[in-house]
Design a protein that fits this description.
Shape: elongated
Number of helices: 10
Strand content: 15-25%
Helix content: 25-40%
Length: 273
């Protein structure tokens, strides 16, 4: 079963605030504004189970960062009236794109070699950061490799973050826990100096009632294609490279005009970056 809606509706306004937002778009690129007037409709495909990027809100309406980003792209390209977005199970996305039942996938499709053979990707518009969380009364400063030398850091065993911690911070003592909750509890109790993990998930934990304002990010955001992947991009059919470049142009304009920052603030009030 799928859910299809027009993207022509308004986006809720967001108050301008200072928020840490990465700039993944290379503003040195000189992309020419595309003309999609003769293209007809543009159909985005997504899912409903990838919050905060795509999900069903309390009213059962399709919502999320990706949904609003697709709408903003269409508005920037002046094709908002002919844009649609359809939600379906993740496993149905690629087959639907192949059959021509959609023009673009905006749902976190990984940029694997196999997927690159079947699609053309835009430039990444979001990348997953790894972050350190510490107690507010025991924050640490960069360079973290020095601040954490010889200290115990909690991490979930068998994860990319565990491998990344050992590779990037070899002088720390990795304390492996079976779950994030146990690792965070050890950090809160002062048994370890910090917890290392997914910055997106940790940003929501820091703003939750469970955290109770106990803790904060320490140091900067850490990115790694090797350990964390290349991030989020929009996928189109292999022969549709011009459409991908059109999306790149639109996202670049959204970054320049601070609209991308507004979307980040709306869905990530506690910035993972």
């Amino acid at each position: 079963m799928s859910l299809c809606v027009s993207l022509g509706g308004p986006v809720a306004p967001v108050l301008a605030q200072d928020v840490a937002v990465p700039n993944f778009f290379d503003q040195r690129q000189r992309l020419v504004k595309p003309d999609l007037a003769e293209r007809g409709r543009v159909r985005f495909l997504t899912t409903t189970d990838f919050p905060p990027f795509n999900f069903l809100d309390a009213r059962g309406q399709l919502a999320g960062f990706n949904v609003d980003l697709a709408r903003a792209i269409c508005e920037e390209l002046q094709i908002l009236a002919t844009c649609q977005i359809e939600a379906m199970p993740f496993d149905d996305l690629l087959p639907a794109l192949r059959r021509g039942e959609g023009d673009a996938i905006i749902a976190g499709l990984a940029m694997t070699p196999a997927n690159r053979r079947e699609t053309t990707f835009t430039e990444p518009y979001f990348r997953y950061p790894a972050r350190f969380v510490t107690r507010r009364d025991a924050t640490l400063a960069e360079p973290m490799v020095e601040s954490l030398a010889g200290k115990a850091v909690a991490v979930v065993g068998g994860t990319a973050h565990a491998a990344m911690l050992r590779a990037f911070f070899p002088t720390t003592r990795a304390e492996v826990f079976p779950t994030r909750e146990e690792g965070l509890a050890a950090m809160r109790e002062g048994k370890v100096a910090a917890f290392f993990g997914d910055g997106v998930g940790l940003s929501f934990w820091l703003g939750s009632e469970t955290a109770a304002d106990c803790c904060a990010f320490s140091g900067g955001a850490y990115l790694s294609d090797l350990f964390l992947g290349e991030g989020l991009s929009i996928a189109v059919q292999p022969q549709d490279g011009d459409l991908a470049r059109s999306f790149d142009y639109a996202i670049g304009q959204l970054v320049v005009r601070k609209r991308f920052s507004e979307l980040m603030l709306k869905y990530f009030p506690y910035s993972p970056f």
